[in-house]
Write a structure and sequence with these properties.
By secondary structure, the chain is an alpha+beta fold. The protein has helices at about 45-60, 65-70, 80-95, 115-130, 145-150, and strands at about 10-20, 25-30, 30-35, 40, 95-105, 135-140, 155-165.
Length: about 170
């Protein structure tokens, strides 16, 4: 927490990728998106939320999603990743941190995701106790390259900025 260098502002980066499979729902940012394929994984396999969780945990130097929610633990089987995000934000708060903002990009050849992004932001912002304009979600394709570009997977990357709750220098916004 605070030391001679001043208040603590931290940045974390997260990423995730899951294979597309038949017989599963496609959930991104907590939104069920109509599509013929879903993402394979232990939870709901929401790559966007997983990348955000890893960015938040990384910013707090608190490990990664696999450390806190391992696929070997049956408690997390099929769970909504929004619930995992809630638990992650609670961990950060317990360490004295709050979220300032998150920026994320989902990479998928299909489906086109633009119409679903506002709903994703509406799902994520209240969990992190920030205004929607502090959550940036973008979508892009891999231009036909690699497993994402070939339509075999969807991936996401995220960056998160957090700060100490009791940082007097930072509270004067």
């Amino acid at each position: 927490m605070p030391d001679a260098r001043g208040p603590s502002i931290r940045i974390g980066i997260g990423s995730d990728i899951h294979r597309l499979v038949a017989g599963r729902a496609l959930t991104l940012g907590g939104v069920k998106i109509p599509f013929e394929w879903g993402l394979s994984g232990h939870s709901d396999a929401d790559v966007l939320i997983h990348a955000i969780i890893d960015a938040l945990l990384g910013a707090a130097a608190h490990g990664d999603i696999g450390r806190h929610f391992p696929s070997s633990d049956k408690r997390w089987a099929g769970i909504s990743s929004l619930k995992l995000l809630e638990k992650t934000v609670a961990m950060l708060r317990a360490k004295g941190f709050e979220v300032i903002n998150v920026d994320a990009t989902v990479m998928a050849e299909r489906p086109l995701l633009g119409q679903w992004i506002p709903a994703m932001v509406r799902n994520i912002a209240p969990i992190m106790a920030v205004e929607g304009e502090r959550i940036s979600i973008k979508a892009t394709s891999a231009k036909g390259m690699g497993p994402v570009g070939e339509g075999e997977a969807i991936s996401a990357i995220s960056i998160a900025l957090i700060r100490e709750v009791d940082s007097p220098v930072l509270q004067a916004e």
